[in-house]
Specification:
By secondary structure, the protein is of the alpha+beta class. It contains 2 helices and 3 strands; from the N terminus they run βαββα.
């Protein structure tokens, strides 16, 4: 991370995820009505040092809920930080 000018201390590097949009469906509605019940959605901005990038994910199925959406946003965040640091992302 020092390569991109982010101060790294023994406790880690400062990373801020600012959530700008958040929507979730009740579990019962998601299971009973599936895609007809709407969607689960998270969108935000990640700030690392002086760099920023957007992350977002939406689930519309009856099986995928907020847990899947948040996992995908977390993966996008980690991949984005890795990309900024010059790491190869799979």
């Amino acid at each position: 991370m020092a390569k991109i000018g982010v101060p790294v201390v023994p406790s880690g590097a400062p990373v801020v995820l600012h959530v700008t949009e958040f929507k979730t469906r009740p579990v019962a509605a998601r299971i009973l009505f599936g895609a007809l019940s709407g969607n689960d959605h998270i969108k935000g901005t990640v700030a690392v040092g002086g760099a920023q990038f957007e992350v977002a994910d939406t689930a519309v199925t009856g099986m995928s809920g907020l847990g899947v959406v948040s996992r995908n946003v977390g993966k996008q965040t980690a991949d984005g930080i890795g990309h900024l640091a010059g790491a190869a992302i799979e």
